[in-house]
């Protein structure tokens, strides 16, 4: 072991420690597991709460987890790292997480550190289910933690937007608009339809059930974890990795990732929001590094009150949604996704009428034309359905792309100051060196490579397709303008001629698509 590693107080703290992680198969959870076994190789053991899924046993899911490219680096460093990790079968929806007596005993007797990241991240999850997953689960976790004999630290993953009904959110726990106990009780007996009808009234000024239930969970913690060594981390919008272990690693379509893919494929071309609003996006590896540092600091300092740490980038004031669009489009042109249907383009507008006009013209109409062509060649239409799915997904982001928040990070700065130079390097969450332009290059590349699993060697061919699409779009654009001018300024132009020109344009476009893009009946 190197001298620099020996000098790390955080690595030394994690030696011979057993760790329990919920949500380990999620985006943040995977990154956390990888970072722990790579940077803290002397941990005693890591227990992951995993539920069986679609006929796959928990051990099979664990093996699938380790096949991710995310673990390539640690596998080269420590080929036997998997021996330190075990899957514990359970489900956050079940009483006591559905733990077997044997597994519960192991956790109670051996665990020192707990990371709780399990939650539903669907913005519009039915309220009853969101309460069960995000609020009831924390009560179960705290009950389990109260039994742990060696417990030194708990880190709960919340969200910076738990209190998004405020424009300036302090690093503190706010009282909820309704007592969680009442909702937990109602979720046990109230009819689903009644719950759904009352949802908007219950969540009041919050945009969705996700942020609402995350706020309730924090309040439950403030009431039931006062005697526990617990801290809360509030990440903002979690994006692809910045540096560790691979730049641009991503494995889900949530948030910016879905926007990158939908825009790169030419399916998303307009969004409701402000180009000047702050895009508070934090790399997942930064979030994980802070989580580990928080666990260490909580165990060492024994804070009297429950500390809250904002893990955000908005305070830097350097990234807006306009910049996200600018950087993303620049890199998408160069990286080029496969099978795009339109040349990539995206614009934000705050005007709802203009948004729906742009969406209809640039997304719905092309999707309709392509579906018509799919029917002609005997294939199942899919583009309108896909366009509608993208529409519903991006509309959940309207609130966040239209507003900006202030998330002070005083506690995060204090935490960083508590760390040694070597720990600040190994568990870096200082974003002053983050180059957003380069970050988005890696983000777009990661979406292509890890999310879509497209071959980077085909980039040149995909770029050629992009250029062809651009030519086709330009031809259609200028032809349409010419038709309008002719219709307006040449009164003698007959209606029959107009329709003939439109049909010629339509079939010319289809022929061009067939010839250039290779759409063939199979």
Automatic annotation (TrEMBL):
A Pfam cross-reference name: NAD_binding_4
Catalyzed reactions per annotation: a long-chain fatty acyl-CoA + 2 NADPH + 2 H(+) = a long-chain primary fatty alcohol + 2 NADP(+) + CoA
Alphabetized UniProt keyword annotations: Lipid biosynthesis, Lipid metabolism, Membrane, NADP, Oxidoreductase, Transmembrane, Transmembrane helix
UniProt signal peptide: none
Keyword Lipid biosynthesis among UniProt keywords: yes
Domain of life: Eukaryota
Function: Catalyzes the reduction of fatty acyl-CoA to fatty alcohols.
Protein name per the record: Fatty acyl-CoA reductase
Natural source organism: Adineta ricciae (Rotifer)
């Amino acid at each position: 072991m190197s001298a620099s590693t020996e000098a790390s107080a955080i690595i030394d703290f994690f030696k011979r420690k057993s760790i329990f992680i919920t949500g380990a198969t999620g985006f943040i959870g995977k990154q956390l597991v990888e970072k722990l076994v790579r940077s803290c190789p002397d941990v005693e053991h890591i227990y992951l709460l995993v539920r069986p899924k679609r006929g796959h046993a928990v051990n099979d899911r664990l093996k699938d987890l380790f096949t991710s490219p995310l673990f390539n680096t640690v596998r080269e460093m420590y080929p036997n790292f998997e021996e330190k990790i075990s899957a514990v079968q359970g489900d956050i929806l079940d009483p006591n997480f559905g733990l077997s007596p044997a597994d519960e005993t192991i956790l109670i007797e051996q665990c020192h550190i707990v990371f709780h990241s399990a939650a539903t991240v669907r913005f519009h999850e039915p309220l009853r289910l969101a309460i069960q997953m995000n609020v009831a689960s924390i009560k179960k976790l705290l009950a389990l933690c109260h039994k742990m004999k060696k417990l030194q630290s708990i880190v709960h993953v919340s969200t910076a937007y738990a209190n998004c009904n405020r424009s300036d959110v302090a690093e503190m726990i706010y009282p909820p608009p309704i007592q969680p106990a009442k909702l937990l009780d109602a979720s046990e007996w109230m009819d689903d339809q009644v719950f759904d009808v009352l949802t908007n009234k219950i969540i009041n000024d919050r945009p969705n059930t996700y942020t609402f239930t995350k706020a309730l969970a924090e309040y439950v913690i403030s009431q039931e974890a006062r005697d526990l060594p617990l801290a809360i981390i509030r990440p903002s919008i979690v994006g692809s990795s910045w540096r560790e272990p691979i730049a641009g690693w991503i494995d889900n379509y949530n948030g910016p990732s879905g926007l990158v893919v939908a825009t790169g494929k030419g399916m998303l071309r307009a969004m409701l929001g402000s180009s000047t609003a702050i895009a508070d996006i934090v790399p997942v590896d930064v979030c994980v590094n802070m989580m580990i540092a928080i666990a260490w600091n909580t165990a060492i300092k024994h804070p009297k009150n429950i500390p809250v740490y904002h893990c955000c980038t908005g305070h830097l004031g350097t990234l807006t949604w306009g910049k996200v669009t600018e950087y993303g489009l620049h890199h998408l042109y160069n990286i080029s996704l496969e099978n795009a249907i339109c040349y990539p383009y995206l614009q934000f507008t705050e005007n709802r009428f203009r948004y729906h006009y742009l969406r209809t013209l640039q997304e719905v109409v092309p999707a309709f034309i392509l579906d018509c062509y799919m029917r002609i060649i005997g294939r199942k239409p899919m583009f309108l359905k896909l366009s509608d799915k993208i529409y519903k997904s991006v509309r959940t982001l309207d609130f966040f792309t239209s507003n900006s928040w202030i998330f002070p990070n005083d506690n995060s700065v204090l935490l960083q100051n508590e760390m040694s130079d070597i720990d600040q390097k190994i568990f870096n969450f200082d974003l002053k060196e983050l180059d957003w332009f380069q970050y988005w290059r890696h983000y777009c590349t990661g979406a292509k490579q890890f999310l879509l699993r497209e071959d980077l060697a085909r980039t040149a061919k995909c770029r050629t397709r992009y250029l062809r699409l651009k030519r086709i779009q330009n031809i259609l654009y200028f032809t349409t303008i010419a038709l309008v001018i002719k219709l307006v300024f040449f009164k003698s132009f007959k209606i029959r001629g107009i329709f003939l020109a439109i049909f010629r344009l339509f079939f010319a476009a289809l022929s061009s698509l067939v010839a250039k893009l290779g759409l063939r009946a199979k």
